[in-house]
Write a structure and sequence with these properties.
Length: 211
């Protein structure tokens, strides 16, 4: 399945001179207002990647944001060489269908790519095993098992703390060269789900506060 769309914390102006700018205080989803604590991770500027593994058929597939999205050849080459059948069988013995969600990053992937790392790679930010979305600590353990990085965890914060953090224009933790963080992803702590089963989460980018 495709990764659920992550809304910005605030709504945006749809018309006029401020079109596209955030409307601070006007939540894009009603659930965002009532949840106090959020688990925060760095948002990576890359290209969306889904890795599906079916333990029954032993089939591994690599997809982009949509089924029709094309992955950069150098990224697909990396994915196929790293996520081998042996690795997946070892990591997911006796498991249901698995989907790994992450970003292809580094190399020439997006403008930030060369700052993150020289070669194309994959960084994990979420995972679903069967019908279960994993908590952040489980994602970090899974990334270690798969010998890949996971999106850096920045701690548990309130919305006010997150906003102040993003406004401070922090440096990326992932980047090997000094580079401004693109933004953050916030997930409810503990995980809470929409009626359709998707985790409640939102994003904020540093550029959202550009005047």
């Amino acid at each position: 399945m495709q990764y659920p769309k992550i809304q910005t914390l605030w709504k945006r102006h749809l018309n006029g001179p401020h079109r596209g700018k955030i409307i601070e205080g006007s939540y894009s989803e009603k659930e965002f207002e009532n949840i106090v604590h959020w688990s925060i991770s760095e948002k990576i500027d890359g290209t969306n990647v889904r890795i599906n593994y079916d333990p029954i058929s032993n089939q591994i597939t690599f997809k982009g944001k949509s089924d029709d999205s094309k992955l950069p050849p150098i990224l697909e080459e990396y994915l196929r060489s790293h996520f081998t059948l042996e690795l997946m069988q070892s990591a997911f013995a006796n498991q249901d269908h698995i989907t790994l969600y992450g970003e292809g990053f580094g190399g020439n992937i997006q403008a930030a790519g060369p700052f993150y790392k020289k070669e194309a790679g994959f960084i994990l930010f979420d995972a679903k095993v069967g019908q279960v979305w994993l908590e952040r600590d489980a994602i970090e353990k899974l990334a270690t098992k798969l010998q890949i990085p996971s999106a850096p965890e920045l701690g548990v914060m309130t919305k006010e703390e997150v906003i102040n953090f993003v406004k401070s224009k922090p440096k990326s933790i992932v980047s090997q060269q000094p580079y401004q963080m693109e933004g953050i992803i916030a997930r409810s702590k503990p995980l809470i789900f929409h009626p359709d089963g998707h985790p409640i989460m939102w994003k904020l980018k540093v550029r959202d506060f550009d005047v």
